[in-house]
Design brief:
This protein has about 150 residues and is mostly helical. Helices cover about 60% and strands about 5% of the residues. It is globular.
Length: about 150
């Protein structure tokens, strides 16, 4: 919680136009997994579709995501990250990396590796309890065209 608060404050100090937390999370998921329907996003985050619909409407208004036909030929429309969305997401990720680098600046490389290993384990344990796994680069992106 403290680390998250530190990153939020650092983002506001550097640029008040940074992505909102919900935009960051949705864009991260779409960026990692590929185009997703509102139903798929709601399921991925365990949220009501009306909540995700409001959040994705904001992404569409800001030009950070766009609606596209299902790449697999299904009926559901999906959301895909735009070039501007990818640019803004990467800018936010860089700020996050910079903030974290400041936090661990006096740590040894071994301590940083240990932290990374433990965080991966923590995240996967939390995902297992929730039954919602986050797609990672080493995992093949899945996707069907169901809503």
């Amino acid at each position: 919680m403290l680390l998250s608060r530190h990153q939020v404050l650092a983002r506001r100090e550097r640029d008040p136009e940074r992505l909102e937390r919900s935009a960051y999370l949705l864009l991260s998921r779409i960026d990692t997994q590929g185009p997703m329907s509102i139903g798929q996003l709601a399921g991925a985050f365990g949220l009501d579709t009306s909540t995700v619909n409001r959040q994705t409407a904001a992404l569409l208004r800001c030009g950070l995501a766009e609606r596209v036909p299902c790449p697999d030929g299904g009926l559901a429309r999906k959301l895909r990250i735009t070039v501007e969305g990818a640019r803004r997401l990467e800018a936010d990720r860089e700020v996050n990396r910079s903030c974290l680098a400041r936090v661990v600046a006096d740590w040894s490389p071994e301590e940083i590796r240990e932290l990374a290993d433990v965080l991966v384990r923590l995240n996967r344990s939390a995902e297992a309890l929730e039954g919602r796994h986050w797609p990672r680069a080493e995992e093949a992106p899945g996707g069907t065209c169901s809503a």
